[in-house]
Amino acid sequence: MRDEDILKYVPRGRKNARSRHIIAKEAGVSERVFRDMVNRLNRQSDHDLIIADQNRGGYFLPKFPEDEEYCNAYINQTFSRANKEKTKALAMKRKLKKQMERHREMPGQLTLDLEGGTNG
């Protein structure tokens, strides 16, 4: 199934949003495949945006003008989530670097082998 084929299973308008489970089942794909298809389609500029309604738990193609405000809020939330993930990743990178520096052996440092091997 091509990614574009999934569009015929996604309803138009937020009030008609349908769950990922139902759409995936009707399309004959797994929920993971459905999510991946949606993500690819949303990165391409030549297809309608597919929105996941966080409140009602379903996917839909926006109907304008009534869904415009929700779509803008959804996109802002996505940016916010991405910024938080970036901040988390940068903090984790700094923490890992510090941990590695603490545990790096110093030149000439002796190690204690408690299993009876050679020291050095």
Spell out the blueprint of helices and strands.
Blueprint: H1 20-27, H2 31-43, E1 51-53, E2 58-60, H3 68-103
Antiparallel strand pairs: 1-2
Helix pairs in contact: 1-2
Written overview of the protein:
The longest helix has 36 residues, at 68-103. α1 (20-27) packs across α2 (31-43). The protein is built from 3 helices and 2 strands; from the N terminus they run ααββα. A hairpin with a 4-residue loop joins β1 and β2 (58-60). It has helices at 20-27, 31-43, 68-103; strands at 51-53, 58-60.
Question: Per DSSP, what share of the residues sits in E-state strands of 2 or more residues?
Answer: 5-15%
Rg measurement, Å: 24 Å
Percent of residues in helices:
40-55%
* DSSP, total strands: 2
State the major sheet. Answer: 2 strands, antiparallel
Taking strands numbered 1, 2, ... along the chain, how are they ordered across the largest sheet?
1-2
The shape, in one word, is elongated
Total number of helical segments?
3
Structural class designation: mainly alpha
Give the CA-CA distance, first to last residue.
61 Å
Order of helices and strands: HHEEH
Low-confidence segments, ≥5 residues, pLDDT <50?
none
Average of per-residue pLDDT values: 91
